[in-house]
Amino acid sequence: MADEFSFKFDPRYRGLLLSLGVRSRNSRVVVSDETFTASFGRFVITTPMSNVKCAHLTRDYKAYKAIGVRGSMVDSGVTFGSNTQAGVCVCFHERVPGVIPLLKRDHAAVTVTVRNPEMLLHALEKRGVDISPEE
Predict the structure, then answer these.
(1) Is the pTM of this model over 0.85?
(2) What is the side-by-side strand order in the sheet with 27-31?
(3) How far is Cα 43 from Cα 45, in angstroms, rounded to an integer?
(4) For 93-127, what is each residue's pLDDT tens digit?
(5) Residue (of 112, 1, 96, 118) closest to 61 by Cα position
(6) C-alpha distances in angstroms, 84 versus 19, 34, 61, 64, 67?
(7) What is the tens place of the pLDDT at every residue in 44-87?
C-alpha cells in the first residue's frame, strides 16, 4: 500500500505557484514499496525505492531559494517548494533525470515541502531508507 503526502502551500506564494501550473491537486509525494514519486505540477521525479539512499528534515528556507522549482548548481539537487518552513531532502544512489530544461543536469536529490515532513520520513524509514539527523 502506498503512502501519499500533499504539499503545504503558503498562501503568500500561491499566485507564483499557480503561474507555474502548480496546484494542490497536481502536487504530491507518493511512496510505495516499489517507487518514490514527487509530482509538483508538470514537474515529476520518479525512481525505484531501491534508488532512494537517505532522507533528512530541512527547515527555515529563504523564499527566493525555496519557492517553486529550484535547481542547485552546487549539489545537483532540485527543490519542489511551496512554503519556507520545512521539508524533506531525499537523496538518491544514482541521479534521476533532470526536470529543469535550462539546468541540463540530472538530480542527486529532491527537497519536497510536504504538509507533514515527519510522516514522510517515517514512510521512507519503514521501507529501509536511512533517515539522517536534521541538517
Answers:
(1) yes
(2) 3-6, 27-31, 35-40, 43-48
(3) 7
(4) 999 999 987 778 899 999 999 999 999 999 999 99
(5) 112
(6) 18, 30, 5, 10, 7
(7) 999 999 999 999 999 999 999 899 999 986 788 999 999 999 99
